[in-house]
Amino acid sequence: TSNASNDESSASAPALAGTDNDKPGQKVVIGFSAPAADHGWIAAIAKNAEAAAKLYPDVEFKAVEPTNDINQQIAAVESLIDAKVGALVILPNDGQQLNQVARKASDAGIPVVNLDRVFPDKLSYRTWIGGDNYGMGVAAGHYIGAKLKEKGVAKPVILEIQGIATLPLTQDRSKGFADALKTYGFTVTAQQDAQFTVQSGTDVATNLLQAHKKIDALWNHDDDQGVGVLAAIKEANRTEFFMVGGAGSANAMREIKSGSSVLEATVTYSPSMASSAVKLARLIAQGKGMSDLVEQGVPQSITLASETITKDNVDTYLPLGFES
Amino acid sequence: MPDIKDPLLVMSGIVKQFPGVRALDGVDLEVLPGEVHCLLGQNGAGKSTLIKTLAGAHQPDAGVIRLGGREVRLTGPVAAIRLGISTIYQELDLVDGLSVADNIFLGHEKARFGFTRTAEAHRAASGLLTRLGHGEIPPATEVGALPPAGKQVVSMARALSHDARLIVMDEPSAALAHDEVDNLFRTVRELTAQGVAVVYISHRLEEIREIGDRVTVLKDGRTVAVGLPADTPTREIVSLMTGRDVEHVFPARRDPGSHEGRAEVLRVEGLTVPGVFEDISFAVREGEIVGLAGLVGSGRSEILEAVYGARKASGKVLVDGKPVRGVSSAVRLGLGLAPEERKAQALLLEESVARNITLGGLARYARLGWLDRGSELADAGRQIDELGIRPADPGRPIRTLSGGNQQKAVLARWLVDRRRLLLLDEPTRGVDVGARADLYAVIRRLADEGIGVLLVSSEIPEVLGLADRVLVIRDGRNVHESDARELDEHRVLDLIMEGSAL
Amino acid sequence: MNDTRTPPVGKLPAPVRTLRDRGGLRHLGLVGALVLLCLVGLVTRPDTFATSSNLVTLLALASTIGVITVGMTFVIIGGGIDLSVGSVMALASVWATTVATQSYGPWVMALCALLVGTATGAVSGLLISYGKMVPFIATLAMMAAASGLAQRLSDRRTQLVAPENDAIVALSTTRVLGLPILVYIFAAVVAAGWVLLNRTTFGRRTYAVGGNAEAARLAGIDVRKHTVLLYALSGLCCGIAALVIMARTTAGSSTHGYLYELDAIAAVIIGGTLLTGGRGTIIGSILGLLVFTVITNLFILNGLDTSDQLIAKGLIIVAAVLLQQRTANTS
Amino acid sequence: MNDTRTPPVGKLPAPVRTLRDRGGLRHLGLVGALVLLCLVGLVTRPDTFATSSNLVTLLALASTIGVITVGMTFVIIGGGIDLSVGSVMALASVWATTVATQSYGPWVMALCALLVGTATGAVSGLLISYGKMVPFIATLAMMAAASGLAQRLSDRRTQLVAPENDAIVALSTTRVLGLPILVYIFAAVVAAGWVLLNRTTFGRRTYAVGGNAEAARLAGIDVRKHTVLLYALSGLCCGIAALVIMARTTAGSSTHGYLYELDAIAAVIIGGTLLTGGRGTIIGSILGLLVFTVITNLFILNGLDTSDQLIAKGLIIVAAVLLQQRTANTS
Ligand SMILES: Nc1ncnc2c1ncn2[C@@H]1O[C@H](COP(=O)(O)OP(=O)(O)OP(=O)(O)O)[C@@H](O)[C@H]1O
Ligand SMILES: Nc1ncnc2c1ncn2[C@@H]1O[C@H](COP(=O)(O)OP(=O)(O)OP(=O)(O)O)[C@@H](O)[C@H]1O
Ligand SMILES: [Mg+2]
Ligand SMILES: [Mg+2]
């Protein structure tokens, strides 16, 4: 709950690497552009990025107005280029559509760290770091598939509540989910999209539960909207199925830990990547490498694995859980 | 002799049914070229409906219309205009947001390849306005900023802008002051001299006598008299219209000076709205009717609005010694204003007649804000009978009432509960002779019951006939004040026009 | 006066259709549309649609926007519009679920939600009546400011209702005669709204102010004060809606009520209220809302995917309105 | 009566405010607000705000909604409203970037965008004029249908403009006299709109239809035909906007123009156009739009946090409008 949350509120906050890399180097202005922080995960992204920047006296952090309008984000990045920042961290609304402007930045000699949603053109960014949406779907699919197999359910009713349907990442997640289920000979019975918001979660779930009197498993793409989904399930007091979440919010982890609800597991898609992205941007701008690696420079691409959190391993993840 | 010529327009057996009302029930009308044909009838008789069918604005349910001998179908306003019928509607049909010139040429703009030619339009517009004696109205003025009279002039100019064979005027003089009517008549004579026929609707019978050639009388949607000579005795025409005899129009006054020493209901001192009127001071006693005479634009409406607290003004306004602060307090102190422009300032067009009537005194029907709809409806019903609002259906949307009946409803609003002082701005605008007499009687009765009345009217006979005391306003100044009986029409005309004359 | 007075015009002074039964007709259309939709539901999903639990679902879903719609109806009849309802609801829900507020227990939380809503509403009202701002712009500004404030307060987090304040959540979980309490709240608000609009001077003045503000002013109505009250009322409804949404989602969040303004306005307009003010009914608005709710419910029961839902929604709205016109004209 | 007296008619309200100078005043207010904002920009960000490149960014950003705003101005002056602009733009952009369309080259793509826009607009117009639907509802339905269709067509994928059709993208990348071509398109649309509104019978009639439809009808104007044309025009603008957005984002997508309707309407209203129709100016709308754009730009440059931005936005809008009133009254 939010009361509990406050003492852990800094749970997912980044820490210093504890290496020479932390020593102040030349001043760097890091520009940051992301979609509108209108829901938990993106909000956490923004917060983590800012927090990471604060760790370093040699970093000036310049976040531009987050927006869900491609046109606006392009303008935002353009104005950052005008402002001649030392490095850019961009989480594009849509990698394909912002590719052009990212390329413009790279061409202008500004190293771009591409966060999460990837630019199609490798020349558009110096380093990509992000989660694995397809993998996330796969993880959820495997958990549900295996669970139902051992239960020996013949033709299981598997529901899926997506996030914003028009986002490419949503389609990747669903594809991964479907592919994984296929290996068990299962398919998704019904699929509805919500808006990543608590309330849309409730409304969609409420209707969906009506449509299906008996459910075996439910995957909800996003733990933030999951709060709403769980509320709907409680309201309908349905318990005959189990639910898997997505992203790995602290709320979700606490639910899993308490075991009081149908939420059994969640597959991570951690916003901690934003902290790393800012750190990388700094290193790149200062020409440093990652001290644990032998290479002099920062790698070109870093993909975070999507892990599955269950009652058994939840305690190890709780510190990383973001307060959505 | 007119009757040798064959008629320009023949309407026969016109029927128009509105939900719940048969507005026209087989009307005949015959108009000769070059004549002024007057259309008379009580409020709600069907005059406006008839001319709307003639303008193509309404489609008749039955009947034939022949123009110049040929039968015509007036499928819409365009058709009528094409056939050379242009119309001045009773309810001003102007676009407030557009300039005077744009309004005049709306629908037939001065343009080439769709591009408007403003200069030309303005030239033509001021031409027409000058012809109507109002060259001073700038064609670029926004119509919404004109007072009613100005709007009336503009819609006349529009009617003239088409070169029409037949011009229909629905109560054009209602919004005009006495002197402007002369002006209008001059124009009408010019038109008829060129062989244009004019259908003229008015409730002022003296006008009919002055300008009309022949008269058709409607009653309850039927023709009761066709093509009477205009010099038919008034009594006869009135009894045709109303089906009864209207004797002395103005009720008897109390004996002179009876108001001396009675308590002052209203005292106004040094009332001023810069640019509109200045330093107006007067008082209204219980039971007294005070008339404001003046030209259109002299500022009488503004004086009323200022007294009512509806307009910021410097100076003192005291009702029973208590100052008026804004409209709400004015109403609480017992004032009631029947404003000049009923559509814009008084009516809730979508609402029922009853709700329009009771709007002023809602508080009376409420206990802790809870409405007692029974007594509300009862009161409304009583007023509808009192003033003879037709049709007598409290539930009917007021927009479906005829102009005159709407006007009666506006007055009824302040009669439901006893006011201390009534402010009446052009109270009989568009009200028929019979009803007018009734209204005068009602107003006088209220006065005799001790209510004060402040009356603005552009009809000098009305002011002289009804008021006890008359104030003459010229250019926003009070230039004369005296007992009504010491004045006659010519004296008043001299007073209000002095200086502005020539 | 004398009995020689002329009789009413025309032959048939017969039953005239007054505003009231015209309203009835208008509703007839919507009811028809609603019935048709329900038939579709019965045909496509005989098993689930008509079940009591699904009806409960429908009502529960409708209740949040429903409450807001009542307030919106007043504002629009009064000649205005309120774009801020969604974010005001969000702000109220957030404010009511801050750690500080929650520490005072459920009653204070509820009170807080109502106060925040009413206050913000009143502010919009003041901007419009005394600041002479266009309602659209004033409430647009409020919309931005309120959701900004909501995000600040909540630090963009979902603030769960603490277990000790479960009384709030109980509004949705505990049932009386098979219906969750919040449905009764919804019903109560609608009833109160109807009475206020049709049986009190306040309602009558609302029509007057919206129908012809100048006339209302000259009739002695304090138009500006009334305007403030109208928006305060709308705000109050947002506060109540905030309670309902908190109960349903067990949380307060700055993302609550996103784009509710559109849905609410749409419901009001399709219910026959004129955007220009002066005319409209609560019943119409609620029927309009139910139409929208049932549509969505049908779609999900039949597992349509979003894009098809949108297309179908567009078509159904058109169909419903045209049907509505027919009934209104033919009668 | 005495014809001896030659009519020395009473002076009607002599010099009353004419249309033009009132417009001037209204704009004065907006210009003032704009200037103030720019000053803020110069003070807070002397280094970046006034740079040419930033101004280009501003204009480029403004151009998409700008084009739509022009169409919206016509519709609103004509007494209507168009909620579908955003999704119609999306639909046009998607349709123009399907593999099929792209195979015909850039010209056909452009043509396709314009046609799709105009056609959808005309449909809304028909529903409103002949179907007698309330503009709000009709265009709301169109909004849903269009974006649904856009999602179907694109299968919710981003459709990049193929390299061989780079001519489209060139509209944003190639510059003439330092300005991207799309800025000139924007300017052209504004100019055309201004002429159409102020110098043609179409413009006059738009004011008439919006100001007093009945009067327009009685004056012989075919109100229904005119209405259809108005919405078709708005649709055409959406088509052009689709081109611009395709150029800027190098792609067509069903997510384009999300909630643009709100921004466009807001710009028009703050520009002094009455939501009730009959009054308004293109210049005002564009100024209104620029105010919004500059506000956002300032935020970006100063890197405010979202929640603060929203709050500030609300306050600035209020301030701007109140300022506007002052200037309008005092003069
Ligand atoms: N749109 C309408 N719907 C229903 N009834 C109408 C409508 N217009 C007019 N009527 C009715 O038709 C009858 C005739 O109205 P009309 O306006 O022609 O009277 P009028 O002779 O012009 O009266 P006035 O002298 O007051 O203008 C009235 O009873 C009126 O209530
Ligand atoms: N809408 C307006 N805008 C600007 N000035 C106006 C307006 N209406 C009236 N005025 C000014 O106020 C003065 C009074 O106008 P108004 O026509 O009301 O006087 P009046 O004596 O009441 O005439 P009427 O007999 O038509 O009522 C005019 O001189 C005019 O200059
Ligand atoms: Mg009439
Ligand atoms: Mg006057």
Automatic annotation (TrEMBL), chains C, D:
Designated name of the protein: ABC transporter permease
PANTHER family: ABC TRANSPORTER PERMEASE PROTEIN YPHD-RELATED-RELATED (PTHR32196), RIBOSE IMPORT PERMEASE PROTEIN RBSC (PTHR32196:SF72)
Keywords tagged on the record: Cell membrane, Membrane, Transmembrane, Transmembrane helix
Keyword 4Fe-4S: no
Keyword Cytoplasm: no
Membrane-crossing segments per the record: 25-43, 55-77, 107-127, 133-150, 176-197, 228-246, 282-304
CDD domains on file: TM_PBP1_transp_AraH_like (cd06579)
InterPro entries recorded: ABC_transp_permease
Compartments, record wording: Cell membrane
Membrane topology summary: Multi-pass membrane protein
Domain of life: Bacteria
